[in-house]
Amino acid sequence: MASTAHNSTHNAAVDETSAAPTRGWRVVDIVVTAVLGVAVGLIFWVWNFIGGAGVPWFDAITPGLGGLASGVWVLGGVVGGLAIRKPGAAILVEMIAASVSFAIGNQWGIETLYSGFAQGLGAEIIFALFLYRRFSLSVAMLAGAGAGIGAVILEYFLYRNIEKSLAFNLIYGITWVISGIVLAGILGWLLVRALASTGALDRFASGRDRRIA
Question: Looking at residue 183, what DSSP letter applies?
Answer without folding.
Answer: I
